[in-house]
Amino acid sequence: MNYISAYCTDTGAIKRINQDSLCIKSAAMNGNEYILAAVCDGLGGLSDGETASAFVICTLSEWFEKRLPEMLKEEKNILQIRHDLDDTLHDASDRLNSYAERTGKTLGTTMTALIFLGNQGKIIAAHIGDSRAYMIKNGNAELLTTDHSVIFDEIRSGKLTEEEAAADTRQNQLTRCIGAGLEDVTFDYSILTAEYDTVYMICSDGFVKKITAGEIAAELDPEVITDDDTTERKLAHLTKLCIERDETDNISSLAIKLIERAEKQIAEQRYNS
Length: 273
Fold this sequence. Notes:
Layout: E1 2-10, E2 20-29, E3 32-41, H1 49-73, H2 78-103, E4 108-109, E5 111-117, E6 122-128, E7 132-137, E8 140-143, H3 150-157, H4 162-167, E9 178-179, E10 188-193, E11 198-203, H5 213-219, H6 228-244, E12 251-259, H7 261-272
Antiparallel strand pairs: 1-12, 2-3, 3-5, 4-9, 5-6, 6-10, 7-8, 7-11, 11-12
Helix pairs in contact: 1-2
C-alpha cells in the first residue's frame, strides 16, 4: 500500500491559537503497510482545546505504534481491531474528564481518523464531532462522516435548509465529542474498501465552511495529486481560499492518495528528475 500524503494547518483569519491537531503515520509489517491519518479540533468555547486535541492525537498514535502491531501478530480480525480502538477512545474521553475534574477545566475535542490496513485492503473510519472525512474520485467529493451537531441534525430532519443553516448562529454546537464532561459517548465507525487512484481527505470544520465540495473535488482530483509537494500546494490553496473568505476558525486538512507500486515509482522518478 504505497501512498502520497500532505497536510496543511492554519490558525485562520483572526485566532491566535491553533487548537487543531493532526497526524499522518505509517508502519510496515510482514510486507504490508499500515497508515494512521487523523484530525482533532479542540473545542474553542472550552479551556485548553489545543490540549484536548493533542492528547487524543497522541493517544491514537500510541495505539497505532503499540496496540495495532500486537493485534496484527495475534491475527485479530478487523472487528476486533475496531473494538480495541473503541476501548482506547472511550478511555481517552474518560481521562480528559478526570483531568477536568482535578483542574476545574473543561476540555473537549472532535476526532476523525482513518486507519488503512494493508493486510486486508480495508480502512477503519472512526469519527465523533464535526470534523470530516471525504473520498474524492470521478469529480466528486463524497462525505464519509456525519456531523454530530445541532445544525446538521436539523438539516437532516428537515427543520433547516442548507441556506438557513449557513446563517444560523449555532454553528459550533456539537451533540457529541470526546471529553467536555460527556459520559457514555458513542463513536461512529465504518469499514471501507481501500481504493487506489482515490484521495482520502480529513479536515476540521474550519476547512469546509467557506469552500464547496466541488472546489475540494477539483483541487484534490486524483489525476492531479501526483506527489507530496503537489498535494501540499493544493491543500494550501484551499486553506488560502478559506482565509480570503474570512473563515475565523482554525483550518486543518490532510490528504492521502493510495497508489499502485508502479505509479509510485513513476512519481518518484518525476520528483527526482
